[in-house]
Amino acid sequence: MARILRLPDVINKIGKTRSPIYADIATGLFPRPVKLGPRAAGWPESEIEEVISARIAGANEASIRKLVTKLHEARRLAQAA
Q1: Is the distance from CB of 2 to CB of 48 less than 8 angstroms?
Q2: Which residues of 50-81 are buried (b: 16+ CB within 10 A; e: fewer)?
Q3: 57-63: long-range contacts (C-beta < 8 A, 24 or more apart)?
Q4: Averaged over 55-75, what is the pLDDT?
Q5: DSSP state of 14
Q6: Predicted structure pTM score
Q7: Beta-carbon count within 10 A of 6 CB
Q8: Interacting residues of 47 by C-beta distance below 8 A, sequence separation 6+
Q9: Distance (Å, rounded) from C-alpha 57 to C-alpha 50?
Q10: What is the C-alpha separation between 12 and 17, in angstroms, rounded?
Q11: Residues 6 or more apart from 28 whose CB is under 8 A from it?
Q12: DSSP state, 2?
């Protein structure tokens, strides 16, 4: 079962605050949150782990953008199924 992390958990996990996380989302370096309700959003933990692993492995920004695009595409395909 996929675990959804809310913003405080994501902040603790990646070591960035809210503004840099949303800046990374805007530049394609971090996955967009998933809507959980009208005023709630969160991130699949597995996606966060993949981005962290890529950064630890030394991936450049272009590689991370490709990874984030792949993650968004996987979400889209899962919703269509």
Answers
A1: no
A2: bbeebeeeeeeeeebeebbeebeeeeeeeeee
A3: 61/29
A4: 98
A5: H
A6: 0.91
A7: 13
A8: 31, 71
A9: 10
A10: 9
A11: 65, 68, 69
A12: P
d(CA 77, CA 72): 9
Q: Which helix (H) or strand (E) holds 60?
A: none
Q: What is the 3-state secondary structure (H, E, C) of 16-53?
A: CCHHHHHHHHHCCCCCCCEEEECCEEEEEHHHHHHHHH
Place of tokens 């958990």: 9
Q: Is residue 45 within 8 Å of 4, Cβ to Cβ?
A: yes
Which pLDDT does position 64 carry in this prediction? 98
Mean pLDDT of 36-63: 97
The two tokens of residue 31 are 């996955």
- Tens of pLDDT along 24-38? 999 999 999 999 999
Between CA 69 and CA 29 the distance in angstroms is: 9
